[in-house]
Amino acid sequence: MCLAQPAAPPQYETVVVTGTYEPLTLDEIDRTVTVLLARERELLLNSIGDLLALDASLDLQQRAPDGVQGDLSIRGSNFGQTLVLLNGERLNDSQSGHHDMDIPVPLAAIARVEVLSGSGSTMYGSDAVAGAINIITQPPEDAEVRLRTAFGNFGSNQQSVSMAGSLGGISEQLVAARDFSDGFMPDRDYRNLQFSSTTHFATRLGSGDVTLGYMDHPFGANQFYGDYNSWEDTKTWLAAVRQELGKKTTASFAFRRHSDLYVLLRNDPDFYANHHADESWQAALRRREQVSPVITVNYGVEGLSESIVSNNLGIHQRARAAAYGSIDFRTLRRFSLSLAAREEVYRSFSGEFCPTIAGGYWLSSKWKLRASASRAFRVPSYTDLYYNDPGNQGNPNLQPERAWTYETGLDWNPAPRLRVDLGVFMRRERDDIDYYRSDPNAIWVALNIDNLNFSGVEGSVRWMPSHSQTIDISYTGLRATEDTVPLGYTKYTFQYPKQTGIAAWQASLPKGFLFRVRLGVRDPFGAGPYALLDAYAASSHGRVRPFLQLTNITGTSYQEIQGVQMPGMTALGGIEIMVYGH
What we know:
By secondary structure, the chain is mainly beta. The chain has helices spanning 48-52, 121-124, 382-386; strands at 15-16, 24-25, 32-37, 58-62, 70-74, 82-86, 89-90, 110-117, 131-137, 144-152, 156-167, 170-181, 190-202, 207-220, 231-244, 249-263, 273-292, 295-310, 314-331, 335-346, 350-362, 367-378, 388-389, 392-393, 401-415, 418-436, 444-466, 469-482, 497-509, 513-524, 530-539, 544-551, 570-580. The strands form four sheets. It has a 22-stranded antiparallel beta barrel. Strands 3-8-9-6-7 form a five-stranded mixed β-sheet, with no helix packed on it. A two-stranded antiparallel ribbon has the order 1-2.
């Protein structure tokens, strides 16, 4: 594997499928979309969290390393307001947004992650209040067999195998991975198991894909939900299929099952335990019409069914159906305008109407001005509605969250190796779902907050000083206001970072030496700022490829979620063996 890139590759050549109904090059997108390449960086990554840490607008509030459990926030949102997709299919968990990042495919199966910042309910329905991330898998182009093993401090022990090949019109990748750790403190051990199958095929009707995934994450949950030596085990099963029906129509179907076993006291499991199992079925039929060389129409219908069986939440089922349509006017590198709307029906035919308008105008060959306005909503999770324990109480009368996002940006491409993006945004939320208590001794009760407003500025620079080096700098600043409940009496509303800055350098040097250094600074609301320095090195030369990953090199003491301590310096070293392939 080599991270060297061809001389002078224009950034706008990257093709994205998130944020629009059809694939477009990055410079033609009129929304704020970031593309994070995984396969080209795989030797320099340990988990999907390492990849998401390269975007300052993303805040992965982890409770433990390596994807054990993290809450993903975009532009200051809470964890339920970010939609997680796998190849365009929903992964969000109907029980709780705490499980949205239970990704049932290993890192080796992921080709890239596309991040849509800003409301995405017009395209995807509920939960995309602040944005969406789309994790995209695809088999490698060449046949290969790769083995990987690594060891590190805190008893870290990792192994994975990836096999890929093609026969006729079918290409396939099988990946299995496991990740063990004794934990950096008592009751913070974990064990991650992941298996996936990604199949791409061609038929007379068109191309198709089948994705199968499984994940099992048992982990010690000390401090996760209070000062208890808790334990938890989450599992995810996923099956998804997509098939083109000719050149204009695509059908898709997916099934997801998630289970969550939680024990309050690990040394006394019978004292208090919850077991939840939820399932979701989703289907979609989409069609595209090229009305003229500059006008495209997209429309379709979708359906979603969700159910849960839980000793605490009870037995519940709900369904939603949606229809959408869009018209896109586009003269490449001159002018674009997209008008789209979605009507989603649920709860005895009550519905949500979510329109979006987005446009862009090329001021010159190097400058582009873009702007958008969009509406989003989120239905309460089953935990929001029905959960009860000695410290928390759900509310079955909760209303869905609603929000409008307005943003404008300026893109500057002065040279093929330099791209600069600047933007400002506002998000106006109504009926925001949070937990409230009247004093520190009271229990948390779910409620709707009348008004919650976010405003912010973000910018990014990508510079390639040579064909083998890339420098990425990004910054996001946020400010939130609300006038419903006293500050400090809500659980999640003010858990956002006021400022986040990231600087990353990546290089592919002669003889296959690869390096990446990342410096991230986070300034959380209500706490002091802190900086994390990470460094990665590897060799992609030959069939035996050693790598070394050092995170939090300075040993900074920090908490991404208040009350949950994160580890100090972590070192992981290992080798990847290319048994077969280039």
